[in-house]
Amino acid sequence: MKLIKTVLLLLSVICLSNCKKSSSETSVSQxxxxxxxxxxxxxxxxxxxxxxxxxxxxxxxNGLKVYLAKNEEEPKIQTFIAVRAGSNYDPKExxxxxxxxxxxxxxxxxxxxxQDFEKEKVLLQQISDLYEQHKAETDADKKKEIYKKIDEVxxxxxxxxxxxxxxxMISSLGAEGTNAHTxxxxxxxxxxxxxxxxxxxLNVESERFSQLVLRLFHTxxxxxxxxxxxxxxxxxxxxxxxxxxxxxxxxPYGQQKTIGTSEHLKNPSMVAIHNYFDxxxxxxxxxxxxxxxxxxxxxxQKVNKAFGSFEKKEVVHPVLPKEDPxxxxxxxxxxxxxxxxxxxxxxxxxxGTKEEKLLTLADMLLxxxxxxxxxxxLNQKQVVQNAGCSxxxxxxxxxxxxxxxxxxxxxxDEVKDLLLSQIDKLKKGEFDEWMISAVVNDLKLSQTREYExxxxxxxxxYNAFIHREDWKDxxxxxxxxxxxxxxxxVDFANSFYKDNYVVIYKRKGEDKNIxxxxxxxITPVELNRDKQSEFIKAFAQQETPALTPKYxxxxxxxxxxxxxxxxxxxxxxxxxNDLFSLSIIFDMGRDNDRKVSLATGYLDYLGTDKYSxxxxxxxFYKLGIDYFVNAGSDKTYVxxxxxxxxxxxxLALLEHLWTNAVPNQETYAKYVDQIAKGRQxxxxxxxxxxxxxLMSYGMYGDNxxxxxxxxxxxxxxxxxxxxxxxxxELRNFxxxxxxxxxxxxxxxxxxxxxxxxxGELLDYPEEVKYVQKETGGNVYFxxxxxxxxxxxxxxxxxxxxxxxxxxSRLFNTYFGSGLSSxxxxxxxxxxxxxxxxxxxxxTASEKGDSNYVYAYIGTQANKMPQAVDAMMDLMTNMPEAExxxxxxxxxxxxxxxxxxxxxxxxxxxxxxxKKRGIxxxxxxxxxxxxxxxxxxxxxxxxxxNIKGETYNVLVVGNKKDVNMDALSKLxxxxxxxVDYLFNYEKKNEDIKL
Length: 993
Prior knowledge:
The chain starts with 22 loop residues before the first helix and ends in an 11-residue tail after the last helix. By secondary structure, the chain is of the alpha+beta class. The protein has an 8-stranded mixed beta sheet with strand order 1-2-3-4-8-5-7-6, with helices on both faces. Strand 14 and strand 15 (568-573) form a beta hairpin. Helices cover 43% and strands 18% of the residues.
């Protein structure tokens, strides 16, 4: 879930990027302290000196925390509304409550989502009373009768409600990323809005959080249960849950899953949910985070006007159980269809403890993706299939998780022992002392990149609130890490890592603990999409300042020069910091030469005549330089990125590798073994089977880019010297360069010195072309051990035409994507047939290729026939709703108006446009086209491009549960062999999914 390395270092590590002053100056200028201020309107706030994020932290009179930071790069604001309440505080007899409440906060209030609340609330009270009866009843047949009554009253209530009004209003603002999440200690509500829509957003959110109305309750409950089913189908989720259960045998971290238990989900209490909302959703237990194009003084006044009247209440969080020390290994096993793996986890102290700092450093010394002990000794040497580690820190405890996947000839215990052996090396101090400062620099680099992004910075703020962290402590965090000595870290490792761990063996096999339930037979509720509440009518009349789109003149924004070797260099200045990226681009890839892709992967495991592979990784890490050599289908990239001051040394090191790489037969044999095991592992992943295997077969049939691979026998026959030669010869082909950073003259000088090409450059080998097949009349099915079934309807459309991009974008907003789309409303909101359902008209990424129409459903197997009928009806007869169309149109225009293509994205966006045969910023044409479109125009687009299409149907599910007769009505059913889909060779033993 949140196992992102260094996630809790937050922005403090950016401090180094501003530390350019002499030591005599820094003692004063680098002082970190909290300062109190009062703005012109009398609002008090605090800042932290030398905080590169520029945070202003306000506390309103009612206790609401408001985190504000300014970034004018784009006219958008990342918003979070965070509540210090999560699954830890669920009643033991009602687990999953906090998460289900999160879903219900989207359903409206007495003003949003209703035609007549006085009439509706009578029915809602009846439903609540019936749920209390249902919860108390123990007789199964009587429970069913009560549920039927709930269904009947819910249908009557739905005639008064209006579905998705919140989503419609937020979408009409041009909002992106509308969502929410619940975890142990938090529930967080998310939107990214155009900056000019702040007033309207605050208007909606202040009403939304003013009260809770549990309308459309039983249909949303089914959606949550489908989410529960998705968890049952995720071996990763089950392994994670088993790890927590072992680490925390008493604490809710391990004893209360956020999603809840099946029994509790099927027996909810609306009374308990209201009580939870009333207790925790109060201003002094909440925070608002706004990061982006804001005016500080005006924004806090607006927030206070919207939320300042919320009533403060005393909040007492329950005292949670303490854990006894783990004194011997705790063993857990998880079974499922995916590849085997092992995890080892150690319980740690909480956020804000000394242990957090020491464990952060220990983790990075063990695995940083480049030069950690696990990176070098296990991954680089290909001793295991893959391995790594990651820490997580929470309010009461934390944990350090290690994970590994076995090679074909390894047991899980062997992988576990190898992971523990790297911990032993840390305990013995078997790492270079310079690694501590290199790790700190690495953190500086990664966080500087990450927090250029408003969403990442805003996430750091809400995390600080949830975990009760002073921002000053986060700004100081890096300085604290720098004070840790090698001996202190070694001493910590010896005291922390003992036989006090939990080991989770993820084994292949049947999960005996799966819960399956019958289809409850819900009556589809009324959506009333043609109705509007008085609130939404007033909302529509609320005026906002206009936001003017800004388009890119790519030819002037991307500068060009040449090297002394006459290589074209495109470049863009980095206005923000001293980071750079340098890419040497070859317009050829595996479609031109399959061995290029093979060779670039092999190079990562090689050393040179001067450095061993491990030494080379260390040299790059010392410099804080990342290098990359990779090949896609039609492009190959060689390059580096990092701090500008080390560009020349980094490029010299890359060129040294490129020129002097030394092949190694043993390394190559392990590389082939790794590819073989990777193929075996990947075909056990249902997502890979559906979205890669079946999708590719549905598009291309037998002759697909996915199936055009070397056999393992062919790979074993390759001479590794040939692959090294292939890499070295790459520089003889035509190439161009893109540089993003400061001081282009210095970059060009380094290229001239280090990257030398000789003579006339070669043309690329001819590209293999793959024919996209016509679709229709086929059902491709893969049998897989799972609770849900997932399916894609896929239809080949017309050849790419840039003239359709405007209509397709508007169609996707209105019809198929987002919480307020037609598909989401009909499949999930009205009929409760799926947790996830969407559809899109997908335009090709390359001129000459075909567009595609597709639709996806993930649902309980016994709901599939109904879900299929509902989706196919929508794909044949598009519902027409004028108000919803206008909202979708407004949303699409506002998203274009608020979009800013900046920095290196200018170059890479233009690269994508040129592949489509477009040489200008076509957003201007799209904006003007959409502005003049009517619902009748969209209907014409639907009739010409979607209605009547014939589909290949791609299905992955459990054959024992799927209604194969229903599938046969969609076309000729062909049960696909997974090895054939990917063109893999079968092993001697059958692999039962």
